[in-house]
Structures are given as structure tokens and as C-alpha cells.
Design a protein that fits this description.
Elements (H helix, E strand, L loop, with lengths): L10 E6 L6 E4 L5 E4 L4 H13 L2 E5 L5 H4 L5 E4 L6 E6 L3 H20 L10 H23 L4 E7 L6 H8 L4 E6 L6 H4 L6 H9 L4 E4 L2 H14 L4 E3 L4 E4 L2 E7 L6 H9 L1 H14 L5 E8 L6 H14 L7 E8 L6 H21 L7 E4 L5 H10 L2 E4 L8 H9 L6 E5 L12 E3 L4 H13 L2 H17 L2 H18 L7
Helix pairs in contact: 3-4, 4-5, 7-8, 9-13, 9-14, 10-13, 11-12, 11-15, 13-14
Bound molecules: adenosine-5'-diphosphate and 6-O-phosphono-beta-D-fructofuranose.
The site of 6-O-phosphono-beta-D-fructofuranose (F6P) has 12 residues, from helix 1.
Length: 496
């Protein structure tokens, strides 16, 4: 077990993200409910924050957040457990539209995922992104000022490319680092932003002491972009460092993971075991098989491609009708954006069309669960499945793949995984697919369905061993270890 506390002795830990780990919402009966938003960032970071006891600064997006927070926006979480402090930053509608829906999700998200048909830039988005980044930097600086000893700020994701530069101007001695959860694009894609904007974005990120990416390729892309577009920066590609404004910025790959033990124990609980028995009795009795997928409805996830592959399977192989059923768990996401809205509509319509075409009075090919499902319930579904499909067109890591592996305590399932995910470069034992190649995709589903129990067990066992050796706590330990090392090195100033 990694001892995270050793890195944080006498050091206040301040984490910053756009999405908060707990949203307080007005319920329908005048009560207040607490929800955990779906997404890899929260899944990964909540268990780590429980161990660091630090402060998490995030947008207060819940309808009842104001009511339960103090005048600084602070509240103890998780509710009832009080492990760490959540400090909420309040955003108005124009902030949300410009910064979150606008620059973050209409410009940077599609650009980083190289799905440029969705890319849209507006000057007002960029302006608002800058002001909101500044506001978050102020909140972090304020938290750092309130502590007597050292502090470390850890910024999360593409919502805050400029925050570290602002923070450095406010608190030059504060150690600041950033984890970029999504892919970082090659230089030719980044330059689709207007001239001036992409250079500013890179300079903003260079306000960090350390920048962490999911896999080495994204780190290499970042170094290339800085080399090409920031003339005053000196890039050492071999060491993965950048000398900038008389400082050294380090870059590295730190693949994110999950609390594997917690997922395995949720999957093994008495309730899950009963749920698995029910699901298998209903959908996978005898030689029948059950597939599963779990997603936010996002155009990066390859959802239409997956439905097409499933549809083709039942079309071309009528013998699989009534013998292969698929549970499709997907939750609406970013629904204020037209691209997400229309995707959700299309997904539901396509699933209904498939069910109409192949379904019978006794059998529904795709069982749709269109909501945010509790993780203990998800764990049972993952465990019950014979195959899990992750078909992202591009994905920084994809934690669903790791959750499936963690929950496969019976080692019966096959993971079908897109080559274009960070996980595919880490997990050895999945069947890799190219979601753009429908025939290859269909062939992989066939091969998975036909795979012997021995081969399934061999592959799953290997993946589970790997996962147990690189959990979310190993990830955090590696990052904090590197940060501590750099903090020590930075005691001496750099000479040009
Ligand atoms: P992203 O960060 O892009 O959302 P990941 O696969 O890395 O993608 O992480 C998604 C996380 O959100 C996982 O922890 C997954 O369990 C959770 N999630 C996705 N869809 C749902 C859903 N329908 N209900 C509950 N949780 C979900
Ligand atoms: O993992 C990438 C990410 O953008 C996270 O930052 C985010 O929490 C998650 O996907 C879900 O997206 P959103 O917070 O926009 O709902």
C-alpha cells in the first residue's frame, strides 16, 4: 500500500477541478439530495482526497450547494464522513456558457480529442475562460494563504490551462502542478485555435512546475507544441523538461487508475452477488451471453459505432438473436450543448430501432438504462457480464475499462477495447478494436463470444494482476513522489 501521507507532511494539499465531487440538489419533496456526478475525474480523485484530507476547490454546480456551504463556499465531504473540505466557486450563467460550455467544451474538448468537426471558437468564450481561470486562481491563493506551513496546488484538466500562470503571479513560491485528463493534440491540431490563443494557452500551462499527462504520446505532443509555438522556451525532449522564464517545467506520463479494491469488494458484496445471479438467470442462462457498456453520452465514446456493430451482429448472425443480450448503461452529459443533445436523441432512437427490428415478445436485444447509476449497482452489472465494450474514438484513459476488469471477480468476461484509449496502451489482455472499422469491430465481438472459458480466464487474470499493481493510489504516489523530488530541486534557481 502506497503511503501518500509521507509526501504531505507539513504540506497543505489543494486540488482544483471544474467538476465538484458532490453536488447538493433540491429534491422533489423539498429535501436536499447529494449526488456524485458521473465522470472519470471524480471517480479517480474522490478516493485519493479521502486519504490526503486536503481542500478541493471546484465549481458549485448543485442547485442547493449555496444552502449547505459557509460564506467562503466551504463544506465538509463526503456527507456524514467529513474526510476533506470542498470549497465551491460560484459561477453565473454567462460564466458557465462562456468558460464551461464555450471554450472548454466547444473548443478544447473536440480539439484535444481530434474530433474537429465539433470544434467551435468564439472570442467571448476565450475571454470568459480567462476570467474564470483567474477567479479559481484567487480561490486557490486564498486557501494557500490560510495555511501556516507549505502548500501544494494541484490543478485538474483542460478547464484550467491558464490558472497556474495566474497563480504563479500571485504566489511565486507555491508549488503548482497539473494533471491533463484528456489527450493532448499534435501541433497541427492545436493551431486550429486562432493565432495568439494557442500560444497563450501553452504559456499558461507553463506556469506549472510539473505537467502530468495520461500517456507518453500526449506528453510528447505537448513538448512539440511548446517547441514550435513558444519561441522563448527551450525544450529538452530527452529529459522531458522545458526551460521557461528562468524556471524548469517538468513533463511526464502518469496513467490514471481506479480504487480497484473498492470496485472488487462492491462486486463481491452480498447484494451484488444476488444481483449477478438474477441478471445471469434472466439474460445468460445456459449458453446465452450478456454484454455491457457504461458511458456518459459523449461523441468521443463511439456510441453510434457500437450500436451499429451490435445491429450488424444480430443482422448477420440470426442464431445470436435471443442468445446475446446487451445492457446499455449511459447517462446524459453536457445536455446544454446541441451536439450532446442530438447525440442522446440519436442513441435512443437507434437503440429503439434495433430493438424493433430484432426483438421478440420475450426478448429485447438492447436493455437501455439511460441514467446515472450508483457505483455498487454498476459493479454487479460489470461482474455479471460476459463481454464489455469500450469503443471510444479517442479517450485520455477510459476508466470504465478498468472498472470492468476490477469487478470481474469470477474472471469470465472479455474486454473489447478501442485502440484509441489510453487504457489500450496499458492493459494487456483486452481484444483491441478500431471503432471506425465496423467489420473488424463485429469480428471482435464474434471472437469474444466464441472465446473459451480458459482463454477468458487467462486474459482476465493477467489484466487483474496488472490493475492491482497500478491502482489510483499508486498513481497518486507516483505523482506526489515526483512533485516532492522537483520541489527539492527547485530550492536552487536555474541559470540560463
Ligand atoms: P470520462 O472521464 O470521459 O467520463 P471515463 O471512462 O474515464 O470517461 O470515466 C467515466 C466514469 O463515469 C466511470 O467511473 C463510470 O463508471 C462513470 N459513469 C459513466 N457512465 C455512467 C452511468 N451511466 N452511471 C454511473 N456512472 C457512470
Ligand atoms: O475526464 C474528463 C472529464 O472532462 C472530466 O474533467 C469531467 O469531470 C468528466 O470528463 C465529465 O465531464 P463534465 O464534468 O463536463 O460533466
Amino acid at each position: 500500500m502506497v503511503d501518500i501521507a509521507q509526501y504531505l507532511i507539513d504540506c497543505k494539499f489543494i486540488l482544483v477541478s471544474n467538476r465538484e465531487p458532490y453536488e447538493h440538489m433540491h429534491g422533489s419533496h423539498g429535501d436536499i439530495e447529494v449526488k456524485q456526478p458521473a465522470g472519470g475525474l471524480v471517480t479517480a480523485l474522490d478516493p485519493t482526497m479521502r486519504r490526503t484530507h486536503g481542500t478541493w476547490v471546484a465549481w458549485g454546480s448543485g442547485t442547493a450547494d449555496h444552502e449547505v456551504s459557509d460564506e467562503l463556499g466551504r463544506v465538509s465531504v463526503p456527507p456524514g464522513e467529513d474526510c476533506y473540505t470542498l470549497r465551491r466557486v460560484w459561477l453565473d450563467e454567462s460564466d458557465v456558457n462562456g468558460y464551461y460550455h464555450g471554450f472548454a467544451n466547444r473548443a478544447l474538448w473536440p480539439l484535444c480529442h481530434m474530433l474537429i468537426q465539433h470544434f467551435e471558437f468564439r472570442t467571448e468564450y476565450w475571454e470568459r475562460y480567462r476570467t474564470v481561470n483567474l477567479r479559481f486562481a484567487h480561490a486557490v491563493a486564498d486557501e494557500a494563504e490560510r495555511c501556516t506551513g507549505r502548500a501544494m496546488a494541484w490543478i485538474q484538466d483542460y478547464h484550467f490551462a491558464l490558472a497556474s500562470e495566474y497563480l504563479r503571479a500571485m504566489r511565486p513560491s507555491l508549488f503548482v502542478h497539473q494533471f491533463w485528463h484528456i489527450p493532448f493534440p499534435p501541433a497541427d491540431i492545436l493551431r486550429l485555435l486562432p493565432i495568439g490563443t494557442y500560444e497563450a494557452l501553452l504559456r499558461g500551462m507553463l506556469g506549472n512546475d510539473l505537467i502530468e499527462f495520461q500517456i507518453d504520446r500526449y506528453a510528447v505532443n505537448f513538448l512539440d507544441c511548446v517547441d514550435k509555438y513558444v519561441s522563448e522556451a527551450r525544450v529538452d525532449h530527452a529529459r522531458q523538461t522545458i526551460t521557461f522564464r528562468n524556471r524548469v517545467v517538468s513533463v511526464g506520463a502518469f496513467p490514471i487508475s481506479i480504487d480497484a479494491e473498492n470496485f472488487a469488494s462492491m462486486a463481491s458484496s452480498k447484494e451484488s452477488t444476488a444481483r449477478v445471479a438474477t441478471l445471469r438467470d434472466r439474460y445468460a442462462r445456459g449458453d446465452r451471453q450478456l454484454g455491457v457498456c457504461v458511458d456518459r453520452i459523449d461523441y468521443t465514446k463511439g456510441i453510434p459505432e457500437r450500436i451499429r456493430a451490435l445491429d450488424t451482429i444480430w443482422e448477420e448472425s440470426p442464431e445470436l438473436r435471443e442468445r446475446f443480450t446487451f445492457i446499455f448503461v449511459c447517462t446524459p452529459s453536457r445536455t446544454d450543448l446541441p451536439a450532446y443533445n442530438s447525440l442522446e436523441r440519436d442513441v435512443i432512437q437507434s437503440i429503439m430501432a434495433t430493438n424493433t427490428r430484432f426483438g421478440t415478445p420475450d426478448w429485447t436485444p438492447i436493455v437501455l438504462i439511460n441514467e446515472n447509476v450508483d457505483s455498487d449497482l454498476l459493479a454487479g452489472v460489470y461482474r455479471a457480464a460476459d463481454i464489455c465494450i469500450v469503443s471510444s474514438l479517442q479517450d485520455g484513459m477510459n476508466l470504465v475499462a478498468k472498472e470492468f476488469v476490477a469487478c470481474q471477480v469470477d474472471e469470465r468476461g472479455v474486454l473489447i477495447l478501442s485502440r484509441f484509449t489510453g487504457s489500450a496502451e496499458e492493459i494487456d489482455g483486452a481484444m483491441l478494436i478500431n471503432p471506425f472499422n465496423v467489420d473488424g469491430f463485429v469480428a471482435a465481438i464474434h471472437a469474444a463470444l466464441e472465446m473459451s472459458p480458459e482463454e477468458r480466464k487467462r486474459r482476465m487474470h493477467r489484466m487483474r494482476r496488472q490493475l492491482n499493481n497500478s491502482t489510483i493510489f499508486d498513481w497518486l504516489g507516483a505523482i506526489l513522489g515526483r512533485a516532492t523530488e522537483i520541489m527539492g530541486m527547485h530550492a536552487q534557481p536555474v541559470t540560463a
